[in-house]
């Protein structure tokens, strides 16, 4: 049950491995009178205990904590915004339907504070991909990965490259020939302005981590 002192506030738990990031977020959130940071955790165990103790309205969790923490608190889930140092969430290893949104702490506070306000005061206890409220929530747009102008098959290959797969592995995975994969690789390089296989590999790996491509195609 929420402590009486903070009955009108949205209670927040921050779970990140960086002390500097936690301090910065705490300072920024202190500018909102109706947001109260109840606990800061720098490990998964500490984050789980903080959520169990404070029953927060919102958990701000680093990418390194978000998924395992969700699993640990599954019986008493909380709304969760994922934090990352890059500009988008990247290519997730799992479905993002149970997450409320993504915040880049490299961005401006005026961009991400409204997202925190919205989720912290949402009447729905957790995010759900099939929820009408969640589908219409503008915060969920923050989970979308920016378009690259690639076809769906090219995008599959691009993200596969980013995960470290070679042409033969991608061909086997997608059920096409190695020659087809190589043709798509060349098309991707041309569309993204990349002049070598090495630059393609680096750009794809960066994209999967959440980096953006610069005007020359690099990340």
UniProtKB/TrEMBL annotation:
This protein's UniProt keywords: DNA-binding, Transcription, Transcription regulation
Pfam families, per the entry: GerE
Domain of life (superkingdom): Bacteria
CDD domains recorded: LuxR_C_like (cd06170)
PANTHER family: DNA-BINDING TRANSCRIPTIONAL ACTIVATOR DEVR_DOSR (PTHR44688:SF16)
Entries under SUPFAM superfamilies matching the protein: C-terminal effector domain of the bipartite response regulators, CheY-like
Keyword DNA-binding among UniProt keywords: yes
SMART domains assigned to the protein according to its UniProt record, in alphabetical order: HTH_LUXR
Domain named HTH luxR-type: residues: 147-204
Protein name (database record): LuxR C-terminal-related transcriptional regulator
């Amino acid at each position: 049950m929420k402590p009486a002192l903070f009955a009108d506030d949205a209670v927040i738990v921050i779970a990140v491995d960086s002390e500097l990031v936690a301090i910065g977020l705490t300072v920024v959130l202190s500018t909102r009178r109706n947001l109260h940071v109840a606990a800061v955790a720098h490990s998964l165990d500490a984050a789980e205990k903080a959520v169990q103790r404070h029953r927060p309205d919102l958990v701000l969790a680093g990418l390194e904590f978000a998924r395992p923490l969700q699993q640990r608190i599954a019986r008493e889930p909380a709304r969760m915004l994922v934090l990352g140092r890059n500009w988008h969430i990247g290519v997730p290893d799992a479905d993002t339907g149970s997450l409320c949104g993504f915040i880049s702490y490299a961005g401006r506070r005026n961009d991400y504070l409204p997202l925190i306000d919205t989720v912290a005061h949402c009447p729905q206890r957790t995010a759900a991909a099939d929820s009408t409220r969640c589908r219409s929530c503008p915060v969920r747009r923050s989970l979308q990965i920016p378009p690259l102008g690639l076809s769906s098959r090219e995008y599959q290959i691009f993200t596969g490259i980013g995960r470290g797969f070679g042409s033969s592995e991608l061909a086997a995975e997608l059920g096409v020939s190695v020659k087809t994969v190589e043709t798509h690789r060349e098309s991707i390089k041309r569309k993204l302005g990349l002049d070598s296989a090495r630059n393609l590999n680096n750009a794809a790996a960066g994209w999967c981590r959440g980096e953006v491509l610069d005007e020359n195609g690099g990340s």
